Give the backbone structure.
Amino acid sequence: MRHYKIVPWGQLKDSSLSRDGLRRLTWIDWYFSHGKNKELTCRRFGISKSVFYRWFNRFDKKNLKTLEFNTKTRRPNKVRTPDISTHVLKRIYAIRKDDLEKSKYEIQEELRREGISIGQSAIQRVINSHRELRNISHYKRVRKHRNYKIARIKAAIELRERNLGSLVQVDTKYFYVLGKKFYIFSAIDCKSRYGFIYCYKTISSASGKDFIRKARDYFPFPIQAINTDNGSEYLLEFHKEVASWNIPHFFTDPHCPKQNGRVERLHQTAEYEYFNYQYDLLDDIDMINKHCMLFNTKYNTRRYHRSLHYKTPLEVVLEYFQKKGGQPFSI
């Protein structure tokens, strides 16, 4: 409720303030009619002191338009202009116009040899102020989107424990052997923890395609879905291969390795429980893959898993098929 202690109603009506301007006038009117208590005014209207002081300092009783938000530019009428002589400006223009590939560093050096001293920033400002001096061929071009798009669908949590092969997590980890870099591709069934690793020299999608084929042949049950991160090795050839099997290819969220946690744990097991103790390992891909197959056998048939109540993955697979009345097709 306004008290009109500052401005008469007629003048207020003629001022044609906006809704926001009237609201600010109400603050100031209430301030004058209640003992000029700024803190009480701020509490009354739920505004901060900085907001009230800003508009109170701008307020002019004879000009209520001071309570309006001024959207005009704050650019000063007089701005600084580069203190560069006309002769130097013409030389910069001529050098750049003659060769648009010349950078400000080259232009500065050429002017220095002519006895002209000028900064690199000043040269760049001259180039920016003349549209014809800009080298538009160096502008970043908008990349054309690939026609081959992949839907990044997230796997449901219940797939992990539904059936054997209902969700197989795949991931890649690099490691060094005698200074040479290799890439370990890993796959693990979420329910049985049945795992498979294989080594490659490159981390391409072709390597991923070859690996997933080997994993499908190695697993004693069909793969029903695959979960990977968003790495390039799981796109193109890898995704086409998975799509040809008519099974879903799920992706984790960016920077969320915990969504692929079981295959991440397989990486650690392979590194800490096996490869760290192979002192005779050479930088030969065939030798490394021979050790990978030895690890696969140990991991699936002889290593007891606490998460499986101290059973091996192979025992879990056999028990599952005994209950279902079937038989693993690769055993």
About this structure: Strands lie at 168-177, 180-189, 195-200, 226-228, 249-251.
